[in-house]
Specification:
Layout lengths: L1 E3 L4 H11 L3 E6 L5 H13 L2 E6 L2 H11 L7 E5 L1 H9 L3 E2 L21 E12 L24 E2 L6 H14 L1 H14 L8 H9 L5 E5 H8 L4 H9 L1 E3 L10 E9 L5 H11 L2 H11 L2 E2 L8 H4 L18 H11 L4
Parallel strand pairs: 1-3, 2-3, 2-4, 7-8
Antiparallel strand pairs: 4-10, 5-10, 6-8, 6-9, 6-10, 6-11
Helix pairs in contact: 5-6, 5-13, 8-9
The structure holds fe (ii) ion.
The site of fe (ii) ion (FE2) has 2 residues, from loops.
């Protein structure tokens, strides 16, 4: 498997032009080294070669748009449905053969199969048991109540993980309740939103806050980190799945779609089939602490120990229309200020 530097993109065009049908080119913003072993195994099993171009989702979407019909990209693999919806809106994907995704729950697949989820992650509450009793926690909504004043941390509202969580809550709560909630959450923050998801857990560990909103796999990554401090953080904190008696915990996907001007649709669909196979779903779960989208696949024991939970049931593609409203609302509220 080859990893291509973003700046070498014109080299990629030539390379893809030479290697033709045996080379599959994936543009991705997934930032996990463990994916490489999966692509290497696919190469060994199929004789195809895989080339990876890594950059941010927006850079990749723009790149595919500007490359047009000459794009070397066969697949676009992005984290978060918000970014996948941006790719659909940009008209750079084409529907895949729907039989490939027949085993995947419908809410994780675009209704016209422009993309499918490959892995999923829950956006949960992580708390310090010395300062929070689990009975104090219930829902995302309750984080806006007075009892949580000065106790909550979350990364920037501009981050797509939060935009998707907020879009789901806007859909479920309706606009008036959502506005009140967002404002209540902002006033309960222990500090201005800063850093990434792990930094929120670290702030709770350090005593700056009591409850963090973050994605599940970062707890797995910290628990098995090379950094002893991160292992201490994960060991000290507990995970809580909000909204279990109401609308369910927000779950998002990383997923991929076939690029509209892909040269190699057959190989692209073969790779999607491979990524959704039970063995590979098990590898994603075992190495990156994500939940497999294939329900028969095995969850990592560390993650599984948290138990089963109820997920939001809204189809993720429905969030697509809500992002502009969410962006406007967080900006109006100056959520990050
Ligand atoms: Fe992430």
């Amino acid at each position: 498997m080859k990893t291509l530097l973003f700046t070498l993109i014109f080299g990629v065009v030539l390379l893809a032009g030479c290697e033709g049908q045996d080379t599959l080119v994936i543009y991705t913003d997934r930032h996990y080294e463990t994916d490489d072993a999966i692509y290497d195994a696919f190469e060994r099993e199929t004789g195809l070669s895989v080339e990876i171009l890594s950059a941010s989702a927006d850079e990749l979407i723009q790149r595919i748009q500007s490359e047009g019909e000459t794009t070397p990209a066969d697949l676009l693999f992005l984290t978060d449905v918000g970014r996948l919806e941006r790719a659909v809106d940009a008209d750079i994907l084409t529907p895949m053969d729907a039989t490939i995704v027949a085993a995947i729950p419908e809410r994780y697949v675009h209704p016209d199969a422009y993309y499918t989820g490959v892995t999923k992650r829950a956006r949960v509450l992580v708390y310090h048991p010395d300062r929070v009793d689990a009975s104090e926690l219930s829902t995302y909504e309750a984080l806006a109540e007075a009892s949580m004043a000065g106790r909550v941390v979350i990364r920037s509202s501009q981050n797509v993980y939060n935009q998707s969580l907020f879009a789901s809550l806007l859909d479920l709560q309706g606009e008036a309740a959502f506005d009140a909630w967002l404002s209540g959450l902002k006033s309960n923050l222990a500090r201005r939103p800063a850093g990434n998801d792990r930094d929120q857990a670290k702030a709770v560990f350090a005593g700056e806050a009591d409850v963090a909103i973050m994605n599940t796999y970062y707890m797995g990554k910290m628990a098995f980190s090379d950094d002893p401090y991160e292992r201490d953080v994960a060991r000290a904190l507990e995970v809580f799945f909000p909204n279990q008696a109401t609308t369910g915990t927000h779950v998002n996907i990383t997923g991929l779609g076939v690029v509209k001007h892909a040269d190699n649709v057959e190989a692209a669909e073969a790779l999607i089939t491979y990524l959704l196979s039970e063995n590979v779903q098990n590898v994603f779960a075992a190495t990156n602490y994500e939940y497999p989208v294939l329900e028969s696949a095995t969850v990592h024991p560390y993650i599984e120990a948290w138990g089963a939970f109820n997920e939001q049931t809204i189809p993720l593609s429905r969030l697509g229309d809500l992002y502009p409203t969410v962006s406007m609302k967080v900006d109006e509220l100056r959520f990050d200020q």
